[in-house]
Amino acid sequence: MKALVGEHIETLKPYVPGKPIEELERELGIEGSIKLASNENPLGPSPKATEAARALLTKGHIYPDGAAHRLRAAVAEFHGVSADEVITGNGSNEVLTIAVRTFCTADDEAVVSEYSFAAYPIICQAQGMTIRRAPMKDPLTFDLEAMAAAITPKTKIVFVANPNNPTGTYVPADELRAFLKAVPEEVVVVVDEAYHEYVQAEDYASAETMRDLRERLIICRTFSKCYGLAGIRAGYGIAPVELIDRMNRVREPFNVNILAQDAAAAALKDVEFVERSVRINEEGRAILEAGLEALGELGVSWIPSQTNFLLVKTPVEGVQVYDALLRKGVIVRPMAGYGLGEYVRISIGTPDEVRRCLASLGEVLPALLSREEA
Question: Which GO terms describe its molecular function (predicted)?
Fold first, then answer.
């Protein structure tokens, strides 16, 4: 019998999201858990976004604007581009998928970095593509020279997450500029800036300031993180009209729902909420780093981050730490699926949530270490 699917699908390992709090509490018989696993905004959604979405609840029987005119106009105004240079998606993840489906075939290759967002190789393998992975440099930062060296005549697309998930590290502006110039002009470069709003580094710059360096450049942003709309699902890409036109031919009709379109457009104008989200994140990061420093004698360390999470190295396998914290009602993310078995990723929650996580970590690590020694 003929195979049901091709080998590229049969061998594909799907992205595995974290379980919702309600499901984990039911399984473990616990209550009052905190979730620090999915890099969500601990403040909730933008109030302006909530108000905009609520106003549309009675219009759920109407199809959304298939071209997302209002949202695209809001994004265009925010970035100082034309609406024809904007494509919207069901989260920025869909924009990544549309890019691969539009510009790549099974005969093409993609270049990604190791320890980068899991969606990139998944999307490309689903297209039947060959994936070339470039190594990182310490401390778990994109090595753009290695990525440029990995490009071959068959390379069609390259992904750069800046800042990167799950490491939290970033690429300085000068390095990114040099890379964009070095990549052959026929290659599509996707710069994923999902965590852009959180960056504090002075030598960082968005790729939107570098659009003059190459034509085949797509910059992706999301409303899932700093704007607090992860459950609403809205994101967008900015690129030259020629690229956006081709991507819209592949984009599914009505791909951004009616609530998400207006909520996201309203969120862009909620400057006060974004500023508050960043302040809370910086406060939480300082508390988390100080607490981890105090746990250094137990073998704990972390990667400096420009995002709303820290990648934390633990003295035992990360999945053991995850399981132990889970039973205390603290949900973090083990990183074995990324090839980082000794790490967990901890999202920066409210200061109180961060303190609870640190206290629990201080309780479970000695027990885990004693078990290892035994």
Answer: histidinol-phosphate transaminase activity; pyridoxal phosphate binding
